[in-house]
Specification:
The complex is a heterodimer. By secondary structure, chain A is mainly α. Chain A has nine helices and two strands, in the order E-H-H-H-H-H-E-H-H-H-H. Classes of the chains: A mainly alpha, B alpha/beta.
Chain lengths: 202, 333
């Protein structure tokens, strides 16, 4: 099983559709503990990504990841722009010149992306951020779990943010008032990984 | 929601176009990426000051572009920081060859995007210093938060450092001055109503008829605590005491007192708060020698106020008094 650029394009297209259809939900989650625009920002960024992919279809996974990363950094803004942008940029560096990524290489790409996010945002598991969904899912993939298990881990990670006090980002200003709300970043990360599970390898 | 807008996704662009049309002698607009710069930019031989942040805080920052204050401002989407390529382009456009100071408010998004921009500019051989403003005493400054937010001190830092740059101070001196302003200023705010983002049409939170968000930020994020309404003098004291105790401001200190409206609070009420705040400052032995009252760092249509105290030294006072010619802050020109 390997992910050619067409499968990975499906991933990104699905993400764009998901962020668009969950725009209000992500905004509402963000309004509870942040400023209410996480869905709008991601939808804007991924709409621009789709535009660029249609104009200039990339030929390798690496060039796809780079285009996605650069576009998110230059259109999303906020913290999620640089964080998701770095995720794809770092993933692209691992993908090299390969035409398709086998499961192990894809896992290494995602792991590099995760490290990129943590280098920039300095969040750790339990801080009530996107890391709480990404980290357990990517760890599962690194350990050769299948995609269904990984997305289950992401969902559990997202749900586990509900009782937490936030230690990073704007939600950290709220102290105990952040308790009882799922983290919007963990929720969007979950949507992103769900789409990867739906992108059929060939 | 009723608002004086056309298309929700054109709010920021159209507001910037209008702002520049209303002050063509002072500022100009670059679109895609969006940034506002001095009409006479770049000023060769002068340190350039660049700031930026989400839109929705008008007149900050674009209203503070002009002689004696900022060289450029990068407005992001509403409550969303600008992007690295945008900050890079704005900085390069005003580079006068003497280095650039980025004045950054302490929010995760602003810090990350300015940091990425600074790396890009340094790769191009441009000297960049950054000062992160974090003056909000409502936030616990600890390892367990993103640190204190940057609020009212940003306006004071941009004014005072802008005057220093205009007077020919070098990058190291202006950076030190900006750091010293941040170290000498403390702020806190409260909200009487939430704000509504015109891009989403949703209020940022809901607040009961008789409730106040105490320790509010400027992005519509809830404050630390919800308290019942009380008279303006009491609320002013609830803001002033934590500010005074935090630095701490001491008897005999000379201070600048800044009462800032959050967008929908009339000047009438801001003056009532000013009256109470200056009395309290005097009771604590502080000598208020400079003042600013008005809506300078807003949160869209939020009703509320923030108070900032800055302990002045002679150079800060001198640069505060120096001419400033921007759309929103203007004297001596």
């Amino acid at each position: 099983m390997a992910y050619a650029v067409a499968s990975l394009m499906q991933w990104i297209t699905c993400a764009e559709e998901q962020f668009q259809s969950h725009l209000a939900e992500l905004n509402a989650l963000d309004a509870a503990i942040g400023d209410g625009d996480h869905g709008s920002n991601l939808a804007r960024g991924f709409a621009k990504v789709r535009e660029k992919l249609q104009a200039n279809p990339p030929e390798t996974p690496a060039s796809l990841f780079k285009l996605v990363g650069m576009t998110l950094i230059s259109t999303v803004g906020g913290a999620s722009g640089p964080l998701y942008g770095s995720f794809f940029l770092e993933a692209g560096k691992i993908a090299g010149e390969q035409k398709e990524l086998d499961n192990a290489t894809l896992a290494r790409c995602l792991q590099a992306g995760l490290v990129g996010i943590q280098r920039l945002g300095k969040a750790e598991a339990g801080d009530k951020t996107m890391i709480d969904a990404l980290e357990p899912a990517i760890r599962a993939l690194t350990n050769e779990a299948d995609m269904g298990v990984a997305t289950q881990k992401a969902r559990e990670g997202r749900d586990a943010t509900i009782p937490l006090i936030a230690r990073k980002g704007r939600a950290s200003y709220l102290g105990e008032r952040a308790i009882g709300h799922a983290d919007p970043g963990a929720t969007s990360a979950c949507l992103l990984l769900n789409c990867l599970a739906g992108a059929c390898p060939t | 929601m009723k608002a004086l807008i056309n298309q929700p996704d054109q709010v920021v662009t159209e507001a910037l176009q209008g702002m520049v049309m209303a002050a063509p002698d002072l500022i100009q607009l670059h679109e895609n990426p969006h940034y506002v710069l001095r009409a006479d930019a770049p000023k060769t031989g002068k340190v350039a000051l660049v700031s930026g942040g989400g839109s929705g805080h008008e007149p900050m920052h674009a209203g503070f572009v002009g002689r004696g204050m900022l060289d450029a401002a990068c407005p992001g989407a509403i409550f969303t920081s600008p992007t690295p390529d945008q900050i890079q382009a704005a900085s390069a456009a005003v580079n006068g060859g003497q280095g650039i100071l980025h004045i950054v408010k302490n929010y995760t998004g602003d810090v990350l995007n300015f940091q990425m921009a600074a790396e890009l500019l340094q790769n191009d051989g441009i000297e960049i210093h950054s000062v992160v403003i974090d003056d909000d005493v409502a936030v616990k400054d600890s390892l367990y938060t993103a640190g204190r937010r940057g609020v009212g001190a940003t306006v004071l830092a941009e004014k005072i450092c802008g005057a220093a740059a205009e007077a020919g101070a070098n990058l190291n001196a202006i950076t030190a001055l900006c750091t010293s302003i941040n170290d000498s200023a403390r702020s806190m705010g409260l909200a009487l109503s939430p704000c509504t983002n015109p891009e989403t049409g949703q209020p940022s939170f809901t607040l009961g008829e008789n409730e106040i968000e105490y320790g509010i930020g400027i992005h519509g994020e809830p404050g630390r605590q919800r308290i019942p309404w009380q008279p303006a003098d009491n609320l002013t004291e609830k803001l002033m005491l934590p500010i005074i105790e935090d630095l701490p401001f001491k008897r005999g200190d000379e201070v600048l007192l800044f009462i800032n409206g959050l967008g929908a609070t009339p000047l009438l009420e801001l003056n009532i708060v000013y009256r109470a705040a200056e009395k309290l400052a005097s009771q604590h032995g502080l000598k208020v020698s400079r003042r600013l009252v008005g809506a300078y760092m807003t949160s869209l249509d939020m009703a509320g106020v923030s108070i900032t105290l800055l302990r002045l030294d002679e150079s800060m006072r001198t640069y505060w008094d120096a001419p400033v010619c921007t759309p929103a802050l203007r004297w001596g020109c």
